[in-house]
Amino acid sequence: MKGHVPSFIFMLILMPIASAALSADRVSQNAAGEQRVLVIMARFPGIEPSVSIEQMRGKYFDKLDRYLRAVSYGKTWVTGKMTEWYTLPRPVSEYQISQHNLGVDKARVMKLVQDAVNLADRNEDFSQYSMIFISLGVDRAEYGMMGLCGYPGMLGWQSQLPIATKGKRQKIPGGVAIYCERAHVGVVFHDMAHIMGGVQGGRRVLPCLYDHDLQSQPGPFRSYAQFYMIHLGYFDPMSCHMFEPDQGPPGPCAWTKRRLNWIEPQKVVKVAKGESKTLLLGPLSEGSSGTLAVKLSLSATTYYLIENRQPIGPDRNLPSHGVLISYCDDEIAECRHGESPVKLVIANPSIPELKGAPFTPQGKNAYVDEKRGISIKVIAQRGKDCEIQVTRGR
Predict the structure, then answer these.
(1) pLDDT tens-digit profile of 218-252?
(2) Strand partners, 35
(3) Which of the residues 39, 79, 116, 340 has the least number of beta carbons within 10 Å of its own beta carbon?
(4) Is residue 241 domain-resident?
(5) 314 to each of 139, 210, 243, how far by Cα in Å?
(6) Can you give the CATH number for the domain in which 53 is found?
(7) Do residues 129 and 37 touch, judged by C-beta distance below 8 A?
(8) Measured between alpha carbons, how far is residue 246 from residues 52, 186, 249, 317 in Å?
(9) What's this model's pTM, rounded to 2 decimal places?
C-alpha cells in the first residue's frame, strides 16, 4: 500500500535506547516556568464537534493553569494559543486506535500527528511553543482513547520525534499529546507531564505510573480493563487521572513532584543509617511546609519516600488522607510486568483499590521493615501537619 510503513520498521525506529538508570536526583529541566502550548483544533470529515473552542480554551488554559500553579507551588503555569478548526484529510476510522495501550497501532498515531501539524504549518510558528496538543472534535467512543502522549510516549522516547511538517519542515517542539473533546483535566495533565518531564538517557523522566499490562487486558474497571492502578492507586494523576469524574485530579505524589523539579531539595529531609528523627511533616499540597518529604536511601537507586497527604487544594480529591510511604527503585523505567519505579506501602490492604494506603494516628500508624532495620511511626496529627518518628538501625 502506498505510504505504508511496515510495523517492524516502526518498532526499530521507536525502540528505547538502552542506558544506565536515572539517579534518584536526576530531574526534569523543562517542568518549571511558562509552558507555551499550541492547541491544534482538529475535526473529522462529516462529524460536527460537540464542544466549542471556547469550552476547550477554558479547560486547556484556565482549569489546567490553576491546577498547574497549585501542584507546582507556583513554579509552573500554562499559556498559549488555540487554532481555529482544521478538518483532517481522512475519516476518523483511518485514525481510530485501540483503547488498550499495548494494542495501539503506532502508525495511526503517527499519521494523525503528521496530518494535524501539516494543517497548522502554514499559519503557525512551532518554535514559539513548548509543546503541541491536538484536540479532536470527537469523543473516546469514536477515536479509541480519551487522551494519549504521542511523544514521549506512544511514538517512543528517542532523542526527538522524527516528524517534520511537509511545507516548512517545522519540527515539533518538546512533544505532542492528543485529546478527545471530553478529556478530563487529569488526563490533560497526565500527558502534558510526560512532555514536561522529557527524555534523559533514552528513558522518560516521568512514565505512566499504572500497569500497562493490566490496562491492556479487557475487564470491568472503567468498563474496559482490569484494575491497573496497582502501584499508586488514586494518589497521583500519573496513575489514575482522577478519582471521581466530576472532581479535579488529585495532586501528584512526592516522587512525581521531585522528578518534575518542583520540590526544593532542602524540603526533603534525609534519615541515614543509625539515625532516629522525630519530624513534623507538612502537607505535600502546601509549598510553604518546612518539610515536604522524608527520604531514606537504601542503595544507589532504591529508597523510601514519606509524605503527608491532607484534604487541601487538589489533594481534596483523594479517597483517603494521611501519611503515605513509597518504595522507589530508579532502575525501573516503566510500569511493566508488575514492576514500577514507585510503589505505595499499603497500611490497610483489606480496603480495595489501594484506598487504605495512608498511615494515620487513629488507624494503622506504623510500618516496620525488619530486614533493613527501619521503623516509621505516625505519632500524632497536629493541625495539617503529621508528627512522625523515623528510626534506622545500622
Answers:
(1) 999 988 899 999 999 999 999 999 999 899 999 99
(2) 78
(3) 79
(4) no
(5) 26, 20, 11
(6) 3.40.390
(7) yes
(8) 20, 11, 10, 10
(9) 0.92
